Amino acid sequence: MSFVANPNIDPKSLGKVGVLFGGRSAEREISLLSGNGVLAALLARGVDAHGFDPALRPLTDLVAEKFDRVFIALHGRYGEDGTMQGLLEQFGIPYTGSGVLASALAMDKQATKRLWITHDLPTPRFAMLRADTDFAAVVLDLGLPLIVKPAREGSSIGLTKVTAADQMQAAFEKAAALDLDVIAESFIDGDELTCPVVGEGASAEALPVIKIVAPESNYDYQNKYFTDVTQYLCPSGLPPAIEGEVRKLVVDAFRVLGCRGWARADVMLTRDGKPYLLEMNTSPGMTGHSLVPMSARAAGISYEDFVLQVVAQATLELHPNEHWKPE
């Protein structure tokens, strides 16, 4: 697998590495767990790594303390949405994961879906909601059940599965409290899957698919991170042809958005075996319950080696000859 083509990375060659975690988003708690896991892995591999919480320290300290690169373990706004990526471009500090535009696109579920639809990639039908939207018409169009969620949040925060038309107002208000843009999406009845993608462009490749079996199909924030009742199957147990189709689809979705480095796509698989893309996470979780490390292990890559490889690929979108460092 090309992602691990260089397993013997010299930790000293990476210089001083900052692990960005915490931050100001609704996913701060999970980011702290992810970041501490990443930091411990880098230290275990002998990397000069340091934790850095942007909510507690001025970002100019990244320059003042002469970080050579950073691992972005921030989730959600101000870390996964292109804003931090743009700042790091200005600072000239290479970072992990997707660049400014791809990060912003992937964070915005509406923009992501419109781009996928343009490229004929399957994703559930949707409608954008406002306070004056005719919710009854949306229900009639998309059918029940349906999903209502903020357009720019992760970890299922603010999400409601609507099973009756009279639930729409409360579902909208819950999501609107977190984001100005609220999206309603057709519910896909079937298996919930997730699949990491690593690399960039033509070299991008999918890691093994994970099948998620949550209690009563309720894969919410609590069941994602704080319980042990959800089952994760990797190998997925899917027929090889379907697993291959899912892996190809998520690589196509990754490339269409212009992602690089690493990401994780969430997919629903209908009862008759048709996959639908839900979203692309460009700074996936790296906690004890997280799925990218699980998939990597199934591919023979340890947590520590995966983290080391990701940080070794930290880069900037500018051409290397255009990199500028403040004096």
UniProtKB/TrEMBL annotation:
- MF terms in GO: D-alanine-D-alanine ligase activity
Give the keywords, sorted.
ATP-binding, Cell shape, Cell wall biogenesis/degradation, Cytoplasm, Ligase, Manganese, Nucleotide-binding, Peptidoglycan synthesis
**InterPro entries given for it?**
ATP-grasp, ATP_grasp_subdomain_1, D-Ala_lig_Van_CS, D_ala_D_ala, Dala_Dala_lig_C, Dala_Dala_lig_N, PreATP-grasp_dom_sf
Q: Top-level EC class, please?
A: ligase
Q: Which NCBIfam families does this one have?
A: D_ala_D_alaTIGR (TIGR01205), PRK01372.1 (NF002378)
Q: What is the protein's known function?
A: Cell wall formation.
UniProt name for this protein: D-alanine--D-alanine ligase
Q: Which organism is it from?
A: Cupriavidus pampae
